Amino acid sequence: MRFKHYGIEVSHQRIGRKFEDCLKEKGIRYLELPLLEDKVLRYEYEGKRRYAYIAPANGREEYLENVYITSEIPEDLSWSNIELDYRIQREKESPMLLPSRASSKRISTERAKTDEHNGTAYTRRQKRVETGIIKCVWC
After folding, report:
1. Tens of pLDDT along 68-102?
2. CB 56 within 8 A of CB 73
3. What is the pLDDT of residue 83?
4. Could you say which of 82, 93, 116, 128 is the most buried, measured as most Cβ atoms within 10 Å of its Cβ?
5. Shortest CA distance to 70 belongs to which of 94, 41, 93?
6. Residue 109's pLDDT band (cuts 50, 70, 90)
7. CA distance 7 to 103
């Protein structure tokens, strides 16, 4: 399925093996970006740079991966928002909008106050998983 994420075309596919193996078989060289929370590969295909965000698909009987291919790094720097936007649009809802800087600062401040009040320290990923809401990585 093809969809738009912040106006950039993204292609989604679910595959039953590692995407890296597919690239290797076609002789396509790739680089895994040094990201701690996300698995992203950068490669050249048909003379154009591509990025593949890879997320496990949680297959019960077999290995499955969700692969999201785009030509640009997401403007909010959140690869996981691509997957969230795909799910939103698959349900026939409007695509996500890029949050403004002011909105991002406000959300960040509110979360910091909440964390201080609760006396807890969470990583960004723990916050997103715990709340079930993925808005932006830097918040």
Report:
1. 999 999 988 999 999 999 999 988 887 787 876 65
2. no
3. 93
4. 82
5. 41
6. low
7. 20
Q: Are the C-beta atoms of 136 and 99 separated by less than 8 Å?
A: yes
Is the separation of the CB atoms in 111 and 121 below 8 Å? no
Query: In this structure, are residues 98 and 7 in contact, taking their beta carbons and an 8 Å threshold?
Result: no
CA 37 to chain centre: 10
pTM given for the model: 0.70
DSSP H stretches of helix in the chain: 19-25, 80-90, 101-118, 124-131
So what's the pLDDT on residue 98?
A: 81
Backbone φ and ψ of 24, nearest 5°: -60, -45
Give me the half-sphere count of Cα atoms (radius 13 Å) on the Cβ side of residue 22: 14
**Identity (one letter) of the amino acid at 120?**
T
